[in-house]
Amino acid sequence: MRKYMGVTHLSNEVNRVKKKNVLIVTLQGRAWNNNYGAALQALALQQFLVSKGFSVTVLDLHPELSAQVTGGLIKKFFISYKKRKKKLFWILSLPKKVTLEFLQSFVRTYSRRWEQQRLQAFRKWRAQFLVFSGASYSNFFELDVQSADFEKKFDVFITGSDQVWNIRLDNEILKLLDIFLLNFVRTKPKISYAASVACTIPNSLYPKYRNALSRFSAISVREKWSAEEIYKATGVDPFITVDPTLLLKPDDWDKHIRWSASTPSREFVFVYDLYRSKEILREIEKIAKREKLVYVNFQTYAFLPWNKFKYRNLLLNYYDRDPGEFLWLIKNSKFVVTSSFHGTIFAIIFKKPFFSILWPERTEMVRGQRQNERILHLLDALDLGDRAFEDPKEILRRGLDDNIDWNSVHKKLDELRKESQEWLLNALDKVLQREANGS
């Protein structure tokens, strides 16, 4: 399969004659998916295309997700009582039951407060930096009935990046797959940029992928695994391109950093514990004590009152901070420890020594996902494979070593960035040239 191949960039004459309108379809909406990586990759693709003379809009998605039915303390108690009323010992468990329900209620209230603050921070940031479609769309049907209107307004449609084709990412993603396969677009050019599958595509979905992607003008994916899965499903051999966040240079990202008033006054470790948080924090707490450092983290449970003495060197939780502050904290940290793909990317962009914590292989098999692939693919391409490992205990064993040749890493990164930029611009030029020629 083809990966990171340089291409001959065609003339931008078409773009200079008339600014072309591009619609990006990705895992973002004005009030949906408050994920740092998802938001920043959307910004990066938008900014790169704008810098090349395109007018860019991000589709405002707000999917109809299944509501989780939750009841109050009293309601839950009586439901439990009905289930257990025939058991003589239910009375004996009453004190424990009430205590447990009280704690659960406290945690739910605590979590809602953090979630609301996070939502407001992301909404404000997106309103400042992302250009969304006028209307919000919750399902494929709403888009499909307006297909003609979309095709009048936009010249090219791009799906990606991020895990737009990962049907195992969430139970709801399968319902959105027609959106991310751009099946609501009938006649205008369609391109995928660094789309990610990150799972095994079921044989039953091969026809859906094959039919949809046969109508794409150009296809690129983000990692080798995705390329292999798309090839098996469709017979199409996609290009492998870098994540959109890597299309921008460090200086470009500096423009989007927002100073955080909460920045620690002493050296700190930035922990983006998106997954495997408890395992990671256990080791970070030990090394922070040993190295006389503090650390900041993502998961809010560590700040629950009963964890105060467990994580004594945890200084700040940034869960409710916007993406600009997220970038600031990474750039100003001493070291980065992350279980996140985009956490790894921004450590590399800002030249911060880091460790990437992987999912255990057995867990990946059970979950049916290939989340490690995207991290390993990138690190191998940059000769940084030794910075990733499964066992968080390696953090303590290895210490916060900064033995990274950043000049060599960024030289390789510049090459990958250039090749991916050229692939995308070449794909756009070709489809726009065909449109201009009426073919």
UniProtKB/TrEMBL annotation:
GO molecular function: transferase activity
Domain Polysaccharide pyruvyl transferase: 35-359
Keywords from the UniProt entry: Transferase
Keyword match Transferase: yes
Keyword Transferase: yes
One Pfam assignment: PS_pyruv_trans
Entry superkingdom: Bacteria
Protein name: Polysaccharide pyruvyl transferase family protein
